[in-house]
């Protein structure tokens, strides 16, 4: 394998080196989480089994993104950096599918726990629809990759936008229910989701729509799913040309850094869930106690005086 392209003058080399460096650090962070929460007793309300599931889901995303960082590829274009069977689009897309569904499941678990702790049905209901939406998005992604139809990729990313818009709504609904560090964490999550949605709406989805329209203008013929499966499994084009990677660098960089950090943060939040109830907002002292199953009766001074008069009489 030629190493000449890895020179200081090639920005693609610097980009790839950064991805590899960050991926190594992310794997180290995951092992730190794993070690920390297996050296101590697990007192989480979610239970040991759920904690193991969260660690597994986080590992699927962290290690999946690390694999795709070391061997980056652009699926529809069939381009990659290294000439190896591991650069097959079918392998890369399969790894991405497992990782992305796992990431969605992390969000669902955290939302379900926080919504249940706060008694917020809206957040709990949203938690149930996140994973099904992302599964549909994965189907669109596979269709786009196999047929080389960018419209399917635009639909896929639009579904991601809908899913995280709902996640944002669920988190906003939790804000009045928590205070202190938990509320600050929720605010940071809202800012991150808003930034992600802005990226999807202004850059990512328009990019795929533009590619789809250009393909129609050029009269390009897409592949059938079966043709595309064979093509994606057997054909990959090695290129180190910045022109080929320019549009991929933005979303891949955000995907393999910020999104992975979000996955690690979700894992940490879930593993610390036994501390979250102490940040619940205290109910107002003047509020009726209907949440405890009965109504409080507050008498006015006049009623109290009348009652006292009747007792003397």
Please provide a brief summary of the model.
The chain is mainly alpha-helical. 72% of the residues lie in helices and 2% in strands.
What does this structure look like?
It is a single chain. The protein has 313 residues and is mostly helical. The protein has helices at 11-39, 47-70, 89-118, 121-147, 150-174, 180-217, 225-234, 242-271, 301-312, and strands at 73-74, 79-80, 237-238. It has one domain (11-279). The N and C termini lie far apart (105 Å).
Lay out the secondary structure.
Elements: H1 11-39, H2 47-70, E1 73-74, E2 79-80, H3 89-118, H4 121-147, H5 150-174, H6 180-217, H7 225-234, E3 237-238, H8 242-271, H9 301-312
Parallel strand pairs: 2-3
Antiparallel strand pairs: 1-2
Helix pairs in contact: 1-2, 1-8, 2-3, 2-8, 3-4, 3-5, 3-8, 4-5, 4-7, 5-6
